[in-house]
Specification:
Elements: H1 4-22, E1 28-34, E2 36-37, E3 42-43, H2 45-56, H3 59-63, E4 67-70, E5 79-82, E6 87-92, E7 95-105, E8 116-125, H4 129-132, H5 135-151, E9 155-160, E10 163-168, H6 184-196, H7 199-204, E11 210-216, H8 223-234, E12 237-240, H9 249-257, E13 263-267, H10 279-288, H11 300-308, E14 318-324, H12 332-335, E15 342-345, H13 351-362, H14 370-379, H15 386-395, H16 400-409, H17 434-444, H18 447-452, H19 467-484
Parallel strand pairs: 9-12, 11-14, 11-15, 12-13, 13-14
Antiparallel strand pairs: 1-8, 2-3, 4-5, 6-7, 7-8, 9-10
Helix pairs in contact: 2-5, 9-11, 13-15, 15-16
The structure holds adenosine-5'-triphosphate and magnesium ion.
Amino acid sequence: LIPPPLREYIERGLSMLWERLFRSEDPYVEIRVDEEVAGNYHVNELYNQVGVYLGSLRSALNTHDRLKAYKQAESDPISFNVHDDESIDDSFDGVHVSWTHSVTEKGNAGNNNASTQKHFTLRFLKTNRQIILPAYLDHVSKDCADIERENSQRYIYTNNYGSWEESSFNHPSTFDSLALDSGMAERIKADLDAFSKGKSFYHTNGRAWKRGYLLYGPPGTGKSSLIAAIANYMLYDIYDLELTKVSDNAQLKSLLMWTRPKSVIVIEDIDCSVKMPNRDEADESSKEATDGDLFGKLTLSGLLNFVDGLWSCCGEERIFIFTTNFKERIDSALLRPGRMDMHILLSYCSFPAFKKLARNYLGIQDHPMFLELEKAMTQSSAQVTPAAIAEILIIHQHNPDSALSEVLAAFPRHADATIDDASTCKGHVDTTTGDECASEFSNRKSKRHYFRRGMSVFLRKSRHPDRSATSRSHSNYLEDVCKET
Ligand SMILES: Nc1ncnc2c1ncn2[C@@H]1O[C@H](COP(=O)(O)OP(=O)(O)OP(=O)(O)O)[C@@H](O)[C@H]1O
Ligand SMILES: [Mg+2]
């Protein structure tokens, strides 16, 4: 409970008193971290790490009146350091330590041009030696690595047959920008936190340090956005594995070998990426190998080994994420715990999720229409995706009243009667009009992607009271889509 500067003052006083009374040795340990490694004039990496670590400590802001502020790069946060020869306090495992930075004249000894020598001194009580050494210095070093990773560029890799191609990853999605059902973001973040701190847990229990998530739900409910949010939260790189560009199991294994730790490995639309023979068929295939039928192909067991076999332990701290619009189409072997530990349903927009979208897109926390909207959203059977709502909000971002009226119109009381009962359409129901769907299509991703996945679009009838007009506009719309494709 004693503030660190006062505690240090008391400790110093006691130590001087002790020395006077008993002429005993200094009760402190001092560790000096020089800028140069003595003798070979190389930069001491630990010196740089201590500088970064101390710059990130905010405690000095409350305790020191003279501080130095700096930024290492434009995009970096502002860091603070105390002046030379002033000490900065920290604590580790309940133990108080202090750091001082000093600059001393070097004399002529070095053959390096610099005339001064810089160093940090770490000071703590001898009685705490076991706690501080080397665990505290390891902690400083690891924290510095995390800070640097936070400020450094991250990458998304896509596979081109046997190799990964890299691009900068700058997706802005975060848990804060996502509209999810209440409590979902917190549950996922808690799971991620437990995973990132779980190295010893996984090792003690003989498990590979990895985690698997299955994200499922209709198109436009935020699966891809959630992947980006997870990568941003964890500060991980992303490996986006396109199974159609993997020729066989051996290639899959080699791609896995080239992934780095602290990464998210993603397979989107796992149900329809490739037609994979299942395990029985694959066993049969070994008999048929001479026919060349399934020989050298990608098989389900190859994929299972990718996620969960011996090879999956070759790198550590990795998260596997699969997405699908149709969970029921996925082989249950892929979904079992240990492969996919959490199954996360992303669904149509609920009122709490809508409120988040309204806050993010319109900057409003509340509105007189919210009550009516909540009623409409809970009572209507219309199923509207967050993507469709986001589109409406973007169009009317400067006019919250019209934005909310448009959203309200998407939730008619008897929604069933307003959705075409098109027997040929399967899957996702989208209550946006054809035009809105078209803009959603072109905004979101390539049409090829949609058609490859066999996505169906429902076109709403309510805006077209005359059924023949509806069919006409629908077929025109579909023709347009095909033409564009
Ligand atoms: N839950 C959400 N919260 C905020 N925005 C969302 C959400 N869902 C979708 N969106 C918006 O809709 C766009 C499309 O979402 P996203 O690509 O993440 O959907 P998806 O579920 O991956 O769809 P698909 O199954 O077609 O791949 C995003 O760019 C985002 O702006
Ligand atoms: Mg997606």
